[in-house]
Structures are given as C-alpha cells and as structure tokens.
Amino acid sequence: MRIVVTSIFVQDQDKALEFYSEKLGFVKKEDVPAGEYRWLTLVSPDDQDGTELLLEPNDHPAAKEYQKKLFAEGIPVTMFGVADIHAEYKRLIEKGVKFTMEPTEMGEVTLAVFDDTCGNLIQIVQK
C-alpha cells in the first residue's frame, strides 16, 4: 500500500492552482470536471509520478470549520520536504510568500511555516 493522493481544503481552486504552481513550483497533473468543482491535482516537478496533492474545495461546512480552526491555532495542514530550507525560504520570500515562522531548528530538522493565501498554513522542512 502507498499514498497516491493527499488533499488540502482550499477556498478557491483557481487561486490555489496559481499559488501552488506559480509560487511553489508544483506541476498540474489532473484537472477534470467534478460536478460544480474539479478534480485538481498537482505533483512535484521532481517526482511527477509521485504523490498527488488534491486542491479540494472547502464547500462543506465541516471542511470550512476544520480549515478555519487549524489556521486560527497556527497548525499547518501539511508538510513539504526541501533540500535547503534557507534557499527555499529566500526563493519564496522573493515571490511574495508570507511566512508565519522563519526557518527554525528543532532537533534534527529545520522547519518554516507560510500562509498559502487559500486558508492554510503550510510547513516546509529540511531533515
């Protein structure tokens, strides 16, 4: 068994697609109509056959509440690995990404947290 898709709730799929592709550099993999919304996934450019990230609409009241509470508590919804967190932090700052936590060493890992502009906090980590 392996993880093939993981999802995050987003307030607006088009805005999320723009942020995750243009700011973060992910590549669109699937974009299929699914009723009122789309099955919209992205992948890492370095692993296009790897785990897909589904940009899932937060249309359901439970999804909205879940997303809102995590954000309010400062809890990241997911984590992305990076090879050089300081270089990635600098690259994202230059693209206008707003961080809520600068790169911080925590034991054997260094992590940072940013706002994805779509209702989520995202953590990047370097082991």
Automatic annotation (TrEMBL):
It comes from the Bacteria. Gene3D superfamilies: 2,3-Dihydroxybiphenyl 1,2-Dioxygenase, domain 1. InterPro entries: Glyas_Bleomycin-R_OHBP_Dase, Glyas_Fos-R_dOase_dom, VOC_core. This is VOC family protein. It comes from Terrilactibacillus tamarindi. Residues 2-127 form the VOC domain.
